């Protein structure tokens, strides 16, 4: 017979699960009352635990103080559980990579000493928290704590990227070209929460191109403003001809400037050349891997750039396996290769280094297709994984993206600067709100997974639109699709295809 303590633990687990699903305290208490009867904990206790699991206490403290995200820091209340943690000598810092120790001693374990006494918040509705961990080695490590968002798919994508990096090291030409994908740690804690490694020294492309004091305004002051371009494409209607005309008009009055990023930061010629080369290779590797996995939502705030190395860091992988194609405003390009992205590559543009690196990436992935298909197949058939969008979810997601995009514009116009190094943005396309409906049967889900797996297999074999292509032919077709104005003009206005 279960003790009262065991019963309490079980009820707390139920509350945590339902709270992660977004259920209200009243709804949770009513459902638990039917199960536990007189043994159910009180309504007051349920509300307390829901507030803890959903982070409402901390959230309301921030909102009550009327402090906006992006301000320096907030003190951690001593009444919070995180401030009372003790005896963490054997607790590893989650974002630190733990190498396998053959001896089993793990004497070099970097343990958690304490958390910093203050924290910051990243932008967005859910106010993800930026905290600093002090390790036993004396170093500080920044972590993003995120709630109300499912990070399991992001974690799997990082595993795929790590596998791709391993495959690239086995190819001599890829090693010589130093091809790799920048990864970061993602640790899901539950269905609706998790930790992400903070990408120090990075900034979203959107901050440089469209943020406060953006490069477009500085270098082309007589061009249209970013907000004017957005309004133009947003009001163009839905007809292909109208949108294409609006996009071409924007391009005539809004010119790319991303080459200045390298001129500003890398003044020595050899340094400038090396960083531009690194950037071009990084664009190529991320583009091809993103295409194979069908990654969508590649707007300028979901792509970070390291200000020291010029490597790109892609974040927020809620839309994968070409689910962007079923959004109300479908995504029509295989990856982001807009004018500003190409402008950063210098005079050669997509020719030369970029094209050759893309071809090498396609060749390596084709040669190791079975290894890639294995890990993708596990994700697609995982009953706990939510990667597929229903029509209603697609509509809700696009509306959320639109609202988040407008919030970003409002922050910029009001003089607020979004936090750099952010590993995901609340309110953007995160797959915490996506997934196959729970009542869908297993057979239907498997059919969707098989179709998706078939499409990945076709990409790896070089089959496009039913036609088998060579490696160079496939890369050429992808570049054409990614840069075609007829495709770019049809994208969601928040994607900002003119940047």
What is the element layout, followed by pairings?
Layout: H1 4-20, H2 25-36, H3 43-53, H4 56-64, E1 74-75, E2 112-115, E3 118-121, E4 129-135, E5 140-147, H5 152-169, H6 172-176, E6 186-190, E7 193-197, E8 202-204, H7 205-210, H8 215-219, H9 226-234, H10 240-253, H11 259-265, H12 269-293, E9 303-306, E10 312-314, H13 339-343, H14 353-367, H15 369-381, H16 391-413, H17 442-461, E11 463-464, E12 467-468, H18 471-483, H19 485-488
Antiparallel strand pairs: 1-3, 2-4, 3-4, 4-5, 5-7, 6-7, 8-9, 9-10, 11-12
Number of domains: 2
Please, how many helices?
A: 19
Taken from the alpha-carbon principal axes, the silhouette is globular
Helix content: 40-55%
Secondary structural class: alpha+beta
Largest sheet: 7 strands, antiparallel
Distance between the termini: 64 Å
Please count the beta strands (DSSP E, at least 2 residues each): 12
How much of the polypeptide forms β-strand, as a percent range? 5-15%
Task: Please provide a written account of the structure.
The longest helix is centred in the middle third of the chain and has 25 residues, at 269-293. It contains 19 helices and twelve strands. It has helices at 4-20, 25-36, 43-53, 56-64, 152-169, 172-176, 205-210, 215-219, 226-234, 240-253, 259-265, 269-293, 339-343, 353-367, 369-381, 391-413, 442-461, 471-483, 485-488; strands at residues 74-75, 112-115, 118-121, 129-135, 140-147, 186-190, 193-197, 202-204, 303-306, 312-314, 463-464, 467-468. Helix 5 packs antiparallel against helix 15. The N and C termini lie far apart (64 Å).
